[in-house]
């Protein structure tokens, strides 16, 4: 599974959420909405969606905003972003991807397709909490021709769960003394926790791929297959 590498490799594309929020100035809510919209469905998955929402809730006071306002702009932005991904997937499908592309790489699409095949429409909710996957799930739903009447409600549920969940985490963490002074460490922790499911899936994928290669090698070599089945007979000449 290559999604782990996809998350970790383009570190230069992961901007600091706190700096971005302060840079928006009085337009911070518009900035939050724009970044969530882009990450959700405009095929640019390397924006700090999780950390952005958590940080916005933690720094709500200094930023001059309210947590409920983050939810108010975040949910529609996430829903609308997924609409774009769905439409792109339905219209262009796999033609958008190339094997050697840095962002729209075929391997990422394949892994997301497996995720979608495993969880079905529930992936529109679960995928929200997995970096990279949340950008590609609506695209895969469109490519798979998932009926829009099924896509929309699950998409909305996922958006509400994700935005409200991340904002709630920010509110809880914001009450911890000293958390604002150590927000950089907190963002690293959030990224690590977000990537953990991808890392686990990556390890499982590598183990599965190795077993498949070994099985294929045994199938193409009868003598090796016999030795693997009965090691005691290895090296014993036939009579």
UniProtKB/TrEMBL annotation:
Coiled coil: none annotated. Residues 215-239 are annotated as: Disordered. The chain crosses the membrane at residues 27-47, 67-88, 154-179, 185-203. Residues 47-170 form the VTT domain. It is a multi-pass membrane protein. Residues 215-224 have a biased composition (Basic and acidic residues). This is Inner membrane protein YqjA. The gene is yqjA.
